[in-house]
Amino acid sequence: MKIAIPDSPLLSPLTRNVDAVCTERGWSVIRTSEAACADMLIRNTVDVALVSPLGYGKAVGVVDERIIPGPCLMLHDYCRVAGLWFAEGLADITTADSSTPDAFLSVIGSIILAEKFDVSAELKKRSSASADCRIDLVSETDPEPALDVSEEWTDITEQPLPVAIWACRIDADIDAVTEAVMAMADPDILETTVVESVPSVGDHFPREGKRTWRWSDDVVPALEQTVELLFYHQHFRELPAIKLLGSDPM
Predict the structure, then answer these.
(1) In sequence order, what are the residues at sequence separation of 6 or more whose Cβ sits closer than 8 angstroms to the Cβ of residue 89?
(2) pLDDT tens, position by position, 126-135
(3) DSSP codes of every residue in 80-96
(4) What is the 3 state secondary structure string of 116-142?
(5) What is the pTM (predicted TM-score) of this model?
(6) Amino acid 200: pLDDT
(7) d(C-alpha 1, C-alpha 169), whole Å
(8) Dist. CA 154–CA 112, nearest whole Å
(9) Is 24 exposed, middle or buried (0-12, 13-18, 19+ CB in 10 A)?
(10) Res 142 pLDDT > 90
């Protein structure tokens, strides 16, 4: 068995024990980009991969995949994971860029621009020429973004934002795969509370949110809402069904 995981520190609570689990089972693990994980699963290079809803949806009409109802990352309201920054003195938004324009959270940021501001600017790779809007992951050194991606997503959809889910090909060993991805996750991290840092003076109350790392009843509705909007904004050729491993398609 081969698995692929994104080389992202954000997802480390889902893959904390991946090396030990794979060694114990005689599996191999590949660390690569978010997009490559999805592509490798589609091309049958790996059997299991940690993918975004965008990566899962791109398999529709190509290969039959199943979502493993296990550890996953969901962003609820304000999470300071990804944000949108706007140029000073901006009168209109005509251009947008990102360090990773094809990444899921960058794509979600572009959908937020379209849904909230009716802006359909193509998301470009960030260069020396500054764009009207930048969409990127938030680093420790970044100023507070003008818009927080997960907060805006919750405002638009009234759903949390699913960021990473385990997916496998339809012929995967259900018991082995489900047990393995559970064992790979950090058992001590189930939920992470996020509180906005604000000045001690003033009347601005800090925004709050949370990151959840386990499957719950709100995952499927959130996934359905996410792939519907991705399809509406033409990121898929057809609307993907939410198919869970061991269950009938939703």
Answers:
(1) none
(2) 987 789 999 9
(3) -SEEEEE-TT-S----E
(4) HHCCCCCEEECCCCCCCEEEEECCCCC
(5) 0.93
(6) 60
(7) 11
(8) 11
(9) exposed
(10) no
Amino acid at position 68, single letter: I
Q: Which residue spans within 112-214 are E strands per DSSP?
A: 123-125, 133-137, 147-148, 161-169, 191-195, 208-212
Cα four-point dihedral sign 140, 148, 212, 12: negative
pLDDT at residue 246 tops 90: no
- Give the separation between CA 15 and CA 182, rounded to whole angstroms: 9
> Tokens standing for 216?
């719950």
**Within its chain, how far is the Cα of 154 from the centroid?**
14
> What's the distance, Cα to Cα, between the start and end of the chain in Å?
27
The 10 Å Cβ neighbour count of residue 172 is 18
> 145 — phi, psi (to 5°)?
-65, 155
List Cβ<8 Å contacts ≥24 apart for 146-149.
146/83, 146/84, 146/85, 146/86, 147/83, 147/84, 147/112, 148/78, 148/79, 148/80, 148/82, 148/83, 148/207, 149/75, 149/81, 149/82, 149/83, 149/84, 149/105, 149/108, 149/109, 149/112
* Euclidean distance between CA atoms 175 and 185, whole angstroms: 16
Residue 250 has pLDDT above 50, yes or no: no
C-alpha–C-alpha distance, residues 140 and 80, integer Å: 10
Residue 92: how many other CB atoms lie within 10 Å: 7
C-alpha 102, offset from chain centre: 12
